[in-house]
Structures
1.
Amino acid sequence: MKFHLHAFGCKVNQYEGELIREELSRLGYQSTGFSEAELLIVKSCVVTSESECKVARLVKSARNSGKSVWLVGCISENLRARLSNYSVEYFETAAFRDKFGITASRISGFASHTRAFVKIQDGCDSFCAYCIVPKLRPALESKVMTEAVSEVENLVKNGFREIVLTGVHLGKYGFDLGEPRYLPELIDRISGIEDLLRLRLGSLHPQEITPALIKAFYDHKLMPHLHISMQSGSDRVLKLMNRRYTAADILRVVSELQNVPGMEITGDVIVGFPGETDRDFKETMAVVEAGEFAYLHVFPFSFREGTKAMDLKESALSRQVMGERIRLITSLRDTLFESRRRRYLGRSLPVLVEESKKGLNTGFSENYLKICFSGQVRRNTVAMVSVSEFRMPVLYGEMK
């Protein structure tokens, strides 16, 4: 049977989707494009109402075109209700693995990518007030270090020069094994793999960015870019969210990270948590500006059934207030985005080429700046590029 797999959302979903693709291919299923497929497999995401809507739209489109649909992974009751008039097979991840006898816990490639994600951790026990994930994912579970290193070694052997370590709650790697210091040790072990050029981390909570982790950016193949899951810059809102850090903690780790040569920091912010006041929002804006974030993912708050935030529904912000705050923070984000990138004009940066078509190449610098340049160079190789121009949202240059 011909199938098309679409994985929504985070790096963890992308990894789990690739694992499914590889295993089904071994069982005789044929991976193909959407239009040719008889079966659509959706690795779903329901973290936000927007992601849930995207899943529902794709499933409806596939069913209307006569395809069979399997929905795998995080499946909320709300999503089931959205699709109640459509014939869909639902599988929790464990049930899907059981159905096909899938025992593999590692991938050997990453279709159409030059970088590979490696999931080293699953589960979350934080129970943030807005998040449904702990109820849809298993308990904390870390991949044994030797297995993680072996998986990366195999991917590097298969031609991947850049690896991204990811997890549902990456900062909890090793905690279920009684080893909260495992992540810096794992970074050390992976950095010793000879042909690996670049190692990156998925997002971390501010309180998980320890001195040992910051030190790893100096001593290893860890690239100078980190994504911080901050969500708010207001201590009052952070407490309501059940986040275990303060605005001062965010600014402290940002300041320490910015001492790393070339470091660029990105982050997440949720706007409009129930009861967020003008003062709370201004505090968030102040933290974003002081932190000089290179990019900010801005999410409007959405209520999720089964979360503590549902108890605060009477404090929901109006659409008008929410819209104005989104406008203000995205304007600040774009200003910082441009300012940070213009600092690189006239500088030379190593770029790992992800696309190369007709002499036009696109790739990312070590600190995750997207750069386009002309010249004859092969995909998945590193080129030194002299940056000469910025056109939102990309830097442009010439190969040296």
2.
Amino acid sequence: MKRSLNVLVFILFLLGSVPVAFAENEADLRARIDAKSKELENVQSQINDTQGKLDNVSSQSKSLSREIQSTEYTIKNLELNIKGSEINIDKLTLELENLGIQLSDTERMISEKKASISTIIREINQREKVGVLETFLSSKSLADSVTELSNLDELQASLGNEIVLLRNLSSALDENIKDTDSKKTGLVNEQLNLKNRKVIVQDQKSYKETLLKETKNQESAFQRQLSELEKKQESINEEIEGLEAVLRKNFNAALAPGRGYLKNPFTGSRIMTQRYGATDFAKTAYKTGFHNGNDYGMPIGTPIIAAASGRILAVGNNGNYQYGKYIVIKHDDNFFTLYAHLSQQSVSVGQSVTQGEIIGYSGNTGYATGPHLHFGVYQTMELKGFAGAGVVPVGTTMDPNNYF
């Protein structure tokens, strides 16, 4: 009787035991994590405000003053994003520390539960060996024998409860490990974002200096440059579209992947500013009347991710023309994706990438009306040289929207 009571007391002790030092440490970490979250919210509010001003400037007619002001807002936004990355790195580091403490505590509790279960099993085995008749004969009274048998039932019920608790702890351990892996990936990505955004800021500052130097801060010089650029780009665009129009006729639907093959080449939600095909905008903006990919509006410096796993076929730069800085991924089934108008590329030719991996950052390089990502999908592709624009991806384009 006394031993059964001791076992039950031990079980209750295990269920209620949480070290005070751990609780205090976790509370302190949670408070610091919450403080970082509030800092991030404040920075995001400033980013949204600056982005609103940038969008307003970008909607105005193209002029030197607009271009300079747009660049200044872009620099400010990138600097705020850098600050946000630094805060998020601190937050993720604290979250990983907290998860580490929780992991250790869960492992300790699992070990204690296993020990508790072993103790209960030994107690049950010992009592079951005695048997019902022997229990009655060895007891001083009928009441004592009934109590002994009742205690056995309680031990068996406690064993069932402990097994359920152990399963719950094991599930919590699995969730903790998954969460830890996710936070580690997030930390690595945020460190990459911080590094690359610092480079992008310097590129934007250099662009502003070059713009002022080349135009001598004169609107007439800027408009002259813009006119020459548009004429050259129009010629390149017509040639490319002429080639791709012919190639599209050879498109083989049987060789194309199915829906769900691709994931969005960015995280979160973004507005599609122009889709693939003979859009209303394409009919008025391009002589060819055709747009060979999807455009997604987003601030400069937004992480761009691989839409599917594959190998990097090209990391190019067309300067002020066509796609500007771009990346091409060749996928296992001879399927290609293009990511264009980037501000920064973070992969190299021949590198293998997995779906969702950061490959670069959005921008407005090349011939672009504003910051956005041009995303193209190809069944066949070749890298063709064009005077003034360097090497440009050309091929059998497909509607990306059919493969998400």
3.
Amino acid sequence: MPEFNQELDTSGLNCPMPVMKTKKALNGMAAGEVLHLITTDPASSEDIPVLVEQLECEILETSDGGGAYHFYIKKG
């Protein structure tokens, strides 16, 4: 698990809310900072990588288990 600067838990929220909240969180962070995103929406496994590419950020690590998806996203 990478070190992170901010954690965003969108558990229980469905698309498009995890994407919208992730975008807002990343826009408020400084370049090089890492966001730990937790989501339970299965669509996030496809939606979050697309968002990260659009924002020119980088996914450092992903994992899933117990019904939750974890993304570590480095702000570009």
4.
Amino acid sequence: EEYEPAYGFIATILYREKNDIESAEIWFKKAEKANCLFAPVAYEYGMLKYYERRDYEIALRYLLKSAEDDYELSYGVIGIIYYAEKHELNNALNWFRKAEKVNCLFAPAAYEYGMLFLEKGDIDQALKYLLIAAEDNYDLAYEELVKIYHESGDHENEKMWYKRIEEETIS
């Protein structure tokens, strides 16, 4: 006899540990059909849909499902999708704030949060979040920091972050 609540965890292992996207998706669908797509599993399925399948609409549906059950890891990714894919700035801001409030604003979300502030012309807030991303070795933030420091005339910080880019390129 099968234990249906395990389906989602099998899917997660196949996705995260084995990088077997096809098999993982089969198990995620089985979990959903068995009504066992619990918050952590819905989050993982949303991540697969977004990062592997590039289907942000379906990913958002699963991530929002996990967020409904207060699965805090989903908040930043939801913010990313609202900003980078749907360009809904207010929704993105709300989700980034939620992620930050619960200490789940990880580098990719901090980067996008910074880019949102950059787009709005709030350089101080943009710097704050881009630095958070960069300090977590999120290299996309390095280039933005170089540009911001260059434009502001802060050549010392510009050189420092440019050097970081060179170091990343060499290693």
